[in-house]
Amino acid sequence: MMKTDFLALPDEILLSIDKPERYIGHEVNAVVKDLSKVQVRFAMCFPDVYEIGMSHLGIQILYDMFNSFEDTWCERVYSPWTDLDQVMREKKIPLFALESQSPVKDFDFLGITIQYEMCYTNILQVLDLSQIPLESKDRTWDVPIVIGGGPCTYNPEPIADFFDLFYIGEGETQYRALLDLYKECRAKGESREGFLRKAGCLPGIYAPSLYDVTYNRDGTIASFDPRYPEMPRKIRKEIVGALDDTYYPMKPVVPYIKCTQDRVVLEIMRGCIRGCRFCQAGELYRPVRQRSVETLKRYAMEMLKNTGHEEISLSSLSSSDYTHLPELLDYLLEECSKRHINISLPSLRIDAFSLDVMSKVQDVKKTSLTFAPEAGSQRLRDVINKGLSEEVILSGAREAFEGGWTRVKLYFMLGHPGETDEDIVGIGDLANKIAAEFFDAVPKEKRVNGRVQIVVSTSFFVPKPFTAFQWAPQCSKEQFIEKAYTCRQGIASQLNQKSIKYNWHEADVSVLEGVLARGDRRLCKVIRRAYEKGCFYDAWSEYYHHDRWMESFAECGVDPDFYTVRERPDDEIFPWDFIDCGVSRKFLLQEWHNAKEGKVTDNCAEKCSGCGAASFGVGICFASRS
Amino acid sequence: MERALFIRVKFTKTGAIRYIGHLDVMRYFQKCIRRAEIDVAYTGGFSPHQIMTFASPLSVGLESQAEYMDLKLNSLTSLQEIADALNAVSVPEIRIADVGLLPENAGNAMASVAAADYAVEFRTGKVPACLAEGSGQSALDPDKCRAVIDKLLARTEIPYTKVLKKGERILDLRPGILDFHFDEERCALFLRCDASSAGNIKPIQVLESICAMEGETLAQYALLVTRLEMYTRKPAAEGEENGELIPMIGICEEHLA
Ligand code: SF4
Q: Residue A217 has what DSSP assignment?
């Protein structure tokens, strides 16, 4: 067995960096196996700092799954923070996995989950520190197979050069087959390319180096073809049919340092019935599949027992739509209060039921109520198909104010297709009406601190692949800034403006995110160039260097505007068209046209709109509707 | 009224876990206690927390054979059961070494620490010349160690400049050094010093003073320090200035080890 106190980093380094706990492993429930009995070593990476990466449920599910395979040992890897990064480069210390503290380059697989575009440079950091060649074409059997997964792989093209394989869809289904194929190929002495070619024929697996792309004069894609006849032209996402009989981590790793998600996370369902036209997750994870309430009760108790966490939270895209929510919450309220365990509620739709539950688990005076109208006017909410009306918001807020709440958070996006100044000014109007509702509902003598606090936050809209808005132009940086200004003016002109605080996001990052989201393979060299100029941790505003990125575009002769500000014609071939996520391009196009006409579409619980996801044969598509 | 039930838990902290900071050790035990389903008492309110106190925090990077935590319980079947339940859900680097039942009038772990024992060793290549064998910097020379320690202890004052967030403060370490000698068996320096909240002394301060006395500077990260025991004082007997030092667990009416 391994000596348990072996650490990859010497004491002098651990004592000189911030939070050495990020790098030492040894957490409760971390899986340690006997290397001599393991055939496949899988390093599972979240390319951001430990506290963020450890909070991700998807990795925990796959960690549990891989380690349930007797022949496989899965370990974790995160991006070293900038202080350690510098030391590792200076001293040429290879990046290591936490459990065995041994170099990632000795593993069979390096799996990287890709949750947001702004981590692309961190992927290069991880490869570089691991001493793995950055591009697939330069790799040999001396280094692991680098495989990507997660939502960003629904357009993997901007990072295609850096990966040997991508896994499209939910990881629970095909990894076993992939590992078996790997073992077989290695035993037979197959070449690396030979393995990739075979792997690329497995369902859901994409081998980017074995496809050729050609472009038209205008820069759009002309063709996208596999290099070998047996390889698929379309890669269909993998999904789990019944969530009740798949992997779920009953013993998640318990970190020592406080992570973003320092609690038991109960995934109650996958997918979302709503179909908001800006939302990529809502399309990618169709159709909705629920876990049974019995399973969830059992999971909750077992995970609380195994972790000792003092809090539990529910996870899904829209928890209010979970059919058995009242039963589940009743159960958790009872069991958790006995055990002094907090329930952290996801943002629920505000109504009598959710207010009642919230008042039981939170101190109403200290917590905020959250609404996400996403757009300031009903007209624009119809364009984006966000089914939340002003009446519902105001009556929910009123009820909450009567119940003692005094803080409200409102989330909006600026830059939706077809947005006018009137829509933006509507944000201030709505915030003002909510404040007025407070002064009307709560008599003077009952007002805590005498006032209501409304915080309006706006982010900038970035069109994403596999949404109705994949054809839409994105705003330029100047337009974004002007919109934020208009919004601020709109708020400042309100009667109750003193009760309203306004926050907005940086525009630079949204522009880059837009380029990367709908980009193609020509961006690989730009990302590499930016990384070589020192860009990483782009998701952390203090480390984001817009100038370096713009220089990289210029030096690589790539025009970022091509990917963002242009409206794409209905029949343009998109870089991600070879992926079949279940929702058909025909349906999305129809939604794009509906958006332009301001026509709303029913949600899956009301009526099936025939998006195409029923082809998976599971979930809500086959539920009876009342 | 029913008597409040307080227990004192002695635990070790070794290996990789030496990098876990004090606050995180507290969080670790909160979770451990839940996993072990110990019937601990909670405060009230919207975010109730377990009633626990820890003795003198250990600096990151140090190992310990004797850390202490006091817990308030609602019920107790046996001390052994507490030790077994905690050990069953703990990482191997944190072991429950002893559990005792605190007498009613005992001060809590944090307030009643008086002194601590440390073994001080050096990382290879970082032994100061005044303590090192031959011209190398890897092993201690017992005779040199004894001589230098005697020289230090012969001083009536050992001024030490402590750098604080705002300015500096000069301390006198001498009264706080209770025992300092070369430990032959371990081939390390043994130091017993004040660990009370008012007069806490860190081993590094003493070693820096030795080096300064000999015209040297202690290399960065030179020390490998292990805390061996923590003490509290018995109430002073007639004519005594201070009560006798006894290990923190010794104040318990009954304990396991
Ligand atoms: S096929 Fe119908 S029910 Fe199923 S996800 Fe699509 S719209 Fe919803």
A: T
Give the pLDDT confidence score for residue A4 in this predicted structure. 55
Mutual angle of helices A175-187 and A192-199, in 10-degree steps: 150
Q: Which of A95, A90, A120 is nearest to A105 (CA)?
A: A95
Query: Tokens 């043994």 identify what position?
Result: B190
| pLDDT beyond 70 at B3 | no
- CA angle, A320 as apex, A314 and A324 as ends, to 5°? 80
Site of tokens 């070693």: B207
- The amino acid that residue B37 corresponds to is E
- Whether residue A256 and residue B46 make contact (CB cut-off 8 A), yes or no, is no
Instruction: Yes or no: say if A271 and A619 are a contact pair by the CB < 8 Å rule.
Output: yes
User: How many CB pairs (< 8 A) connect A and B?
Assistant: 75
Q: Which residues of A461-480 are buried (b: 16+ CB within 10 A; e: fewer)?
A: bbbbbbbbbbbbbbbbbebb
What digits encode the pLDDT tens for the residues B47-100? Answer: 789 999 999 889 999 999 999 999 999 999 999 999 999 999 999 999 999 999
Residue A626, pLDDT score: 62
- Tell me the three state secondary structure of residue B186: coil
At which residue do the structure tokens 């009740």 appear? A244
- Contact between B27 and A363 using a beta-carbon 8 Å cutoff: no
Residue A93: DSSP 8-state: P
Q: Are A549 and A509 in contact (CB under 8 A)?
A: no
Task: Please list the ranges in chain A whose pLDDT falls under 50.
Answer: 1-3
Q: Name the closest residue on chain B to residue A343, using Cα atoms.
A: B47
How many Cβ atoms from other residues are within 10 Å of residue A67's Cβ?
22
pLDDT, residue A566, reads 95
Structure tokens at A177: 């087959």
Query: Which one is the CATH code of A263-364+580-626: 3.30.750.210, 3.40.605.10, 3.40.50.10860, 2.60.120.260?
Result: 3.30.750.210
C-alpha distance from B123 to closest chain A C-alpha (Å):
10
Element (H, E) at B85: helix B79-88
How many CA atoms, within 13 angstroms, populate the side-chain half-sphere of residue B1? 3
> In A229-313, where does DSSP find H-type helix?
280-284, 293-307
Closest-CA residue of B relative to A308 is B31
Q: Minimal Cα–Cα distance from B45 to chain A, Å?
A: 9
User: Which amino acid is located at B247 in the chain?
Assistant: P
The pLDDT value given to residue A3: 46
Ligand 1: lining residues by beta carbon, under 6 Å: A 286-287, 604, 608-611, 613-614, 620-621
Question: In sequence order, which residues have a C-beta less than 8 Å from that of residue B219 and are 6 or more positions away?
Answer: B126, B128
Q: Which residue has the tokens 């989201």?
A: A517
Pocket test for ligand 1, best of A239, A284, A286, A583 (most atoms within 8 A of CB): A286
Tell me the CA–centroid distance for residue A37 and ligand 1, in Å: 45
Domains, chain B, with CATH or none: 5-112+247-255 (3.30.70.580), 124-220 (no CATH)
- Two structure tokens written together for B144: 């040199």
Q: How many CB atoms lie within 10 A of CB A91?
A: 10
pTM higher than 0.90: yes
Which residues on adjacent β-strands are paired with residue B225? B120
- The Cα–Cα gap between A533 and A535 comes to 6
pLDDT at residue B1 is higher than 50: no
The protein residue whose alpha carbon is closest to atom 4 in ligand 1 is A621
Q: Report ipTM for this prediction.
A: 0.92
**Of A174, A175, A173, A196, which Cα lies nearest the Cα of A186?**
A196
